[in-house]
Design a protein that fits this description.
6-stranded mixed sheet; ATP binding; Rossmann fold; alpha/beta; about 40% helix; cell inner membrane; translocase; single chain; about 270 residues; globular
């Protein structure tokens, strides 16, 4: 289980990014973080694994407080946290398999990673993960030859290669089309259910969050202003999180855009025949 207790982050300029965030994420729960740009969503995720140093508060992963750990201890604890990035963070010139195996860097001696001589068990495990995310046939392809959705699947497999106890996911669908976005979110939710993995997903797409998240936390100006289930996310609550907006029209516009994109893909497929 992950517990955040009074987590705060204030930058050197004096600007607060997070203010007294307290919440817990039990085993197997998928929590979606929503909020306007600058609300602190990415900062919150990065404070958990200390890519950003919190100013105060606790980050409890099980019985360990990640805040205040030495660099060596933090490296060991980060093996317990899988991170999936918006821009994939793959090494483009390496193969898909090599990118997945990089998830084992925290477990193997430097010479093995430098020589790309991973243990046979790690290689076998990487093949299994690629099969799970639907990319087994792409194992020997370079990462820069993949589509955006395929790259995100590689990122998921790499995070799982760590055998993590927690997944942190930063805007996994921001660069993807609506159909691929749903496929990626479905894959993430299935994997978390299979493994009992808790996950925090920073997601900008509210309808997508409502469709796939078990729990939603809304941030505004670094503070938690909503914490509940998707069906509790009313238009009034959305206004509290984002400010005034015609949410009915926005949702209808999103649906119309998705339908238009689907029609365009169908036309292109028909012309290709």
């Amino acid at each position: 289980m992950l517990k955040l207790e009074g987590l705060s982050k204030t930058y050197k300029t004096g600007d607060p990014a997070l203010s007294d965030v307290t919440l817990s994420v039990p085993k197997g729960q998928i929590l979606g973080l929503i909020g306007p740009s600058g609300a602190g969503k990415s900062t919150l995720i990065r404070c958990i694994n200390r890519l950003v140093e919190p100013t105060s508060g606790k980050v409890m992963l099980g019985d360990v407080n990640l805040v205040g750990l030495s660099k060596a201890d933090l490296r060991r604890q980060r093996r317990r946290i899988g991170m999936i990035f918006q821009e994939y963070a793959l090494v483009e010139r390496l193969t898909v398999m090599e990118n997945v195996l990089s998830g084992r860097l925290g477990y193997v001696p430097f010479w093995r990673s430098f020589m790309r001589k991973y243990p046979a068990a790690d290689i076998q495990r990487a093949y299994q993960l690629l099969d799970r995310v639907g990319l087994l046939e792409k194992a020997d392809n370079r990462a820069d030859a993949l589509s955006g959705g395929q790259r995100q699947r590689v990122g998921i497999a790499r995070a799982l290669a760590q055998d993590p106890e927690l997944l942190l996911v930063d805007e996994p669908t921001a660069s993807l089309d609506p159909k691929t976005s749903r496929q990626i979110m479905r894959l993430l939710t299935e994997i978390c259910a299979e493994r009992g993995l808790p996950a925090i997903v920073n997601i900008h797409d509210v309808p997508l969050a409502q469709q796939f998240m078990q729990r939603i936390v809304g941030l505004r100006a670094g503070r938690v202003v909503f914490d509940g289930t998707p069906d509790q996310l009313t238009e009034s609550t959305l206004t509290t999180i984002y400010g005034e907006e015609d949410w009915h029209e926005m949702r209808r516009g999103d649906q119309e855009q998705q339908e238009a994109e689907a029609e365009a893909r169908d036309r292109m497929a028909a012309l290709a025949k």
